[in-house]
Amino acid sequence: MTPAAAKPTSAEAATSAPAATPPATAPPPAANPTTVGPAPGPRLLEGGPIAATIRASVAEDVADFKRRFGFTPTLAVVLVGRDAPSAVYLQQILRTCARVGIEGRLVEIPGRVSAAALRRQIGHLNADPLVSGIIVQMPLPKRIPLSTVIDTIDPAKDVDGIHPFNAGLMTLGYEGFLPATAQAAVEILKRSGIPLEGRRAVVVGRSNVVGKPAAILLMREHATVTVCHSRTADLARHTREAEILVVAAGHPGLVTGAMLSPGVVVVDVGINVVPAGKGAPADNGAQADAAGGTRLVGDVDFASARDVVAAITPVPGGVGPVTNALLLTHLLRAARQQQRRSPAPLRRIG
Ligand code: NAD
């Protein structure tokens, strides 16, 4: 149950590698007046290259794990009901598992399942020695309280950091399993060379899986953090104060350029499916799904934000890929810890 103070794996070391690129706040090169072409946009903080680096390290660690322990660690991904966007997201995770040599096991549970039966199913996964980590796709069917999952999942297999034990470790600055999306939001900033210490960071959203942990992790990096939520009065007053803005509200276009100060660095965590033709223009990397006539957009209105921000994560292709890659580093850490004969002592890291 107790997260071990294991030696960092190469994948974990990769998650805290020094900045590879100059800060987004560096002055842009002077424009050449004779050059004809599209107006220069903001720096795009792409998640793809960061995720690729993390995956490469995980793949090495997985190979090493298999040599040492003679089995392939498994991530169980639990899908309750047939929520189409969830199914797509889980397929992405399963593909990412396959790319690094981790076994991804999709556990599909009918949407009509009772809370007690779901608890039993998670109990089976807790007890399965081949399963090193478990994630349960949200949202659950409305009838099933979230606590059914949160209270049942073994903290030692809770690789997305939803159990109160892991949340407590994070809050108090101990090593545990961090919520991967919140970690990805901060990791993108760190690995893009964006200074955080002493800067004014604003987080829009206070959910337990994204907003709240993102705020805690930014504090860990010594930013001065304001958290906004659905009952915040005058959201724009706060967002305009931000030097670093993390938005995780689940509302397409909630934050517009008029709500930002010039030079802000924005991490757009939102993933929203909107009809094609609505939302941000395709130059933020958003892709239309021709068949369904839908597209993915973030919570930030890219079209109006692009001329104000210094840097911004694209949607899709920003936080998402890094989230999946980090999840696999957690899975491998869980697998290693479970091979220890005795739990390691708690380790403070923040
Ligand atoms: P949630 O619904 O649990 O929480 C949303 C939060 O936003 C709440 O705290 C709410 O108070 C706040 N909020 C809502 N409307 C607001 C408003 N008008 N002004 C200010 N605050 C407002 O959602 P979540 O699970 O935290 O996810 C947030 C977004 O992040 C969603 O779009 C989700 O799809 C996306 N997400 C992305 C990833 C990824 O890997 N990129 C992972 C998880 C979630």
- Numbering strands along the chain, what is their spatial order in the largest sheet? 1-12-8-7-5-6
The hetero compounds bound to this protein are:
nicotinamide-adenine-dinucleotide
CATH topology description of one domain: Rossmann fold
CATH class of one domain: Alpha Beta
What structural class results from the helix and strand content? alpha/beta
Largest sheet: 6 strands, parallel
Low-confidence stretches: 1-7, 16-23, 25-35
Instruction: Specify Rg, calculated over alpha carbons.
Output: 20 Å
CATH level-four homologous superfamily name of one domain: NAD(P)-binding Rossmann-like Domain
The topology string of helices and strands comes to: HEHEHEHEHHHEHEHEEEEEHEH
Q: What is the CATH architecture annotation of one domain?
A: 3-Layer(aba) Sandwich
> Mean pLDDT, nearest integer?
88
Instruction: Find the count of extended strands (DSSP E, 2+ residues).
Output: 12
C-alpha geometry: globular
Helix content: 25-40%
**Helical stretch count?**
11
